[in-house]
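Problem 3 from the worked examples.
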Amino acid sequence: MDAPDTSLYKSPQAYKVDMEYYDAAMKRIPVPYESVFVPTSFGKTHAIVMGRKGAPSVVLMHGLAANALSMRSMFPALAKDYRIYVPEAVGYSGKSATTRPPVEDYTKWLMEVLDAFKIDKTHMVGISLGAWLSMRIALDMPQRVRSLGLLSSAGFVPSSKISLIKTIFLVSTSTFPSNSRNNARRFLRLITSPKWQQDPEMVEVFYRLLRYYKSPNALPRTLRDEELKKINQPTLLLMGQYDQLFKAAPVVERARKLLPSLRTSEIVPDVGHLMNIEKPELVNSLILKFLKDN
């Protein structure tokens, strides 16, 4: 057996420890699922697949540096009525290949994943970078997308410079073991609502990302007016009241002005960037209502 590629991690031991934690977390997924690998020109892609076979498909897209497990708060709610596919982007912190292409090439990667699963047309639900990537697929291959669910979406406004500076500082100082868990808590405070009681498991997840993982530094660009005007699929947009990475009000304002098929746009109260983790029941109910209406 070939040795695993540990190049995305700060050491082979870091990779080993993180994968052990990942495998243990997978066992806690509360619904039946399959762990599947499919080939792409960027390397093999791991995906978690669940839900009723033959039901309408929903592709869930995680955010920057994350993996499929970051979307698991949605699994029980959506898997009842839909076939759910949760691919892990290559070059990120899951089990997919370590290839890290330019951000713009991730649309080609995702199209190859859809082809590998024989998904002709699907609902797309993404958070942050995953929302941006969902919009890009809707632009590049509109016939493949039924609807768009955009959470904490990148692509409408530039990310906050202050938040980026704070993030870079936390990532850089997390090399020192004494700082790592404290920095994980600080990072969570940066990207969540001040009212959210931090979950110990989420602290552990972000500790491992900061401590062991070589985070990507390429960010998605802001989409142009003419691009947003071409997105004709029914769209749901949810932004967090306390999102420090992409300010909610200007995102919603630009979406309402430019997206021709925007069905619902809301600023979700008392959440930050990680709304699916902070208020999973509310977010899931809004997504399900949108999917059933479209």
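Problem 4, a separate protein:
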Amino acid sequence: MVIAKTPRSLTILSRHFRKRLIEKRYVALVHGEVETDAGSIRAPIGRDPDERPQWRVRQDGKQAETRFKVLERLLRATLLELEPVTGRTNQLRIHCAHIGHSIVGDEVHCGLRIEDCGMEQSVTRLCLHAAKLSFHHPSSGEWIEIDSVTPNEFRAAVESFRKNASPAQF
């Protein structure tokens, strides 16, 4: 989370978000083995108030793009780094489900209940984590990189899918 302290900073940060100058990286644990090491998911996202979930890939939706990179392949799951190029509502969840690799713990877009995802222990959260935020400081112009520690519940979910008992590498 970034909070502007002055109106000038708010204006600058808002412009940077609009121009996509702010870099966001997420880590996600998804169902199944993603075969491609890296790639891009381009699928339009729109809202349909008569359907559940309301936000989904729709031909009449707004253009959306998510870049991904495989961090680790596990037993029946893959650990991904995700970069939302655009910023649509629920974009990462929708795009992962769209390519057949829904995020572990996402009962809305997954079609699987948490207890049916084949893990040794139940997942208590959506396995999507905002790992890094990078931007130019609005006053100094200095490049700032903020990393966030992976929550314990997320680590536990990864461990339950991991083939070996080696320490997490993220």
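Solution to problem 4. Residues 7-18 form the longest helix (12 residues). The domain at 22-134+141-161 is CATH 3.30.2350.10 (Pseudouridine synthase).
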